[in-house]
């Protein structure tokens, strides 16, 4: 299972994936329906996608949802918190502290 974070803007989104303790950047995703659908088709059925709740988030979720296990909408504060956790996990010194329970709180 991967957790896919999607920060949506008007014409594009920025996507990252969290898998096996590593953050992978997917880069920009075009928000035009046909191109977003092509991106969603590449996702795994057991992926969970987290989308920032902005103006066109519901439309994006409707396109992505049939291709993944779950789509979760978060407010901008929740997204910043999620990204902060992911960035901490990328930091080797943070790994050494073994604070894995942080993700569960």
How much is the average pLDDT?
79
Helicity level: 25-40%
H and E string: EEEHEHEHH
Count up the helices.
Answer: 4
Strand order of the largest sheet: 3-2-1-4-5
Distance between the termini: 20 Å
Strand content: 25-35%
Please state the CA-atom Rg, rounded to the nearest Å.
Answer: 14 Å
Unreliable segments (pLDDT under 50, ≥5 consecutive)? 93-105
Q: From the helix content, strand content and strand pairing, which structural class follows?
A: alpha/beta
Global outline: globular
Q: How would a textbook summarize the main sheet?
A: 5 strands, mixed
Question: How many E-type strands?
Answer: 5
How would you describe what is shown here?
The protein has 105 residues and is an alpha/beta fold. It is 35% helix and 31% strand. The protein has four helices and five strands; from the N terminus they run βββαβαβαα. It has a five-stranded mixed β-sheet, with helices on both faces. It starts with a strand and ends in a 9-residue tail after the last helix.
Question: What keywords describe this structure?
Answer:
single chain, 105 residues, alpha/beta, five-stranded mixed sheet, 4 helices
Quick recap:
The protein contains 4 helices and 5 strands; from the N terminus they run βββαβαβαα. It has helices spanning 33-41, 57-64, 76-90, 92-96; strands at residues 3-8, 12-19, 22-30, 48-52, 70-74.
């Amino acid at each position: 299972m991967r957790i896919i974070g999607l920060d949506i803007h008007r014409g594009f989104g920025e996507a990252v994936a969290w898998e096996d303790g590593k953050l992978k950047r997917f880069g920009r995703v075009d928000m035009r329906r046909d191109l977003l659908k092509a991106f969603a088709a590449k996702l795994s059925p057991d992926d969970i996608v987290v989308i920032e709740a902005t103006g066109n988030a519901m439309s994006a979720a409707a396109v992505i949802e049939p291709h993944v296990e779950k789509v979760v909408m978060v407010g901008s504060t929740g997204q910043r918190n999620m990204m902060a956790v992911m960035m901490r996990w990328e930091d080797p010194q943070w790994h050494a502290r073994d604070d894995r329970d942080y993700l569960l709180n």
